[in-house]
Amino acid sequence: MKYPFLLAFAMTALSGCATETSTDRQPDYEELDSATLLDSPDPVVGRYHPADKDTVDRGAYMIELLACGACHTNGAFEGDPDIDRSLAGSSTGIAFTNPLGDKFPGVIYPPNITPDEETGIGKWSDRQIANAICAGIGRHGERRIPSMPWQGYARLSDDDVAAVVAYLRSIEPIRNAVPKEVKPGDRATSPFVYFGVYRSTE
């Protein structure tokens, strides 16, 4: 195996891609048992005002409901989440172009969303975090974040978004830098999944 390559795809994607042709041999696959629902890390006393406890608790509930940990926690895609580093980002990425049609798909690695100032969202404003959640817009207003399911979050109420922001600021900062995004056509050197169901066995 030339590089650690995890490739997952939904069975429905196979039929949808049946008309695509490629001269490259596709790898074999094995089924993944990903972790989709994870408990939210506990807020840290002193990182939020006591009067905001209900809001922070609401945010913790929303993070679990929205299954943020399923992408933003290392090991979750493989069914072995690193609970001690929950929400600190994933070294396994998500292909955002079709690996069955593209030899080297584009891949994004779910970022660290703990309040670490260097590798997480500690220097983001409340508005920047809200824009990422509800519109998939990166911190500096760049293009929409690939694979971020913002369309499903776009109708969250302002109160729910504010609760998520308050909660994310309340948890323990964890320093963890994830691999950089891989552009389509470039070769990923860190593993990735596609649709989170199967991965290559090569």
Task: Provide a compact summary of the structure.
The chain has 6 helices and 5 strands. It has 202 residues and is an alpha+beta fold. The protein has one domain.
Protein described:
The chain has 202 residues and is of the alpha+beta class. The chain has one domain (11-200). The protein is built from six helices and five strands. The strands form two sheets. A three-stranded mixed beta sheet has the order 3-2-4, with no helix packed on it. It is globular, with a radius of gyration of 18 Å. Mean pLDDT is 82; it is low at 1-26.
Q: SSE layout and pairings?
A:
Elements: H1 11-16, E1 29-31, H2 53-65, H3 69-72, E2 93-95, E3 107-108, H4 126-135, H5 150-153, H6 158-170, E4 192-193, E5 198-200
Helix pairs in contact: 2-6
Low-pLDDT residue intervals, each spanning 5 or more residues: 1-26
Quaternary form:
single chain
Secondary-structure-based class equals alpha+beta
Helix percentage: 10-25%
- What general outline do the C-alpha atoms trace? globular
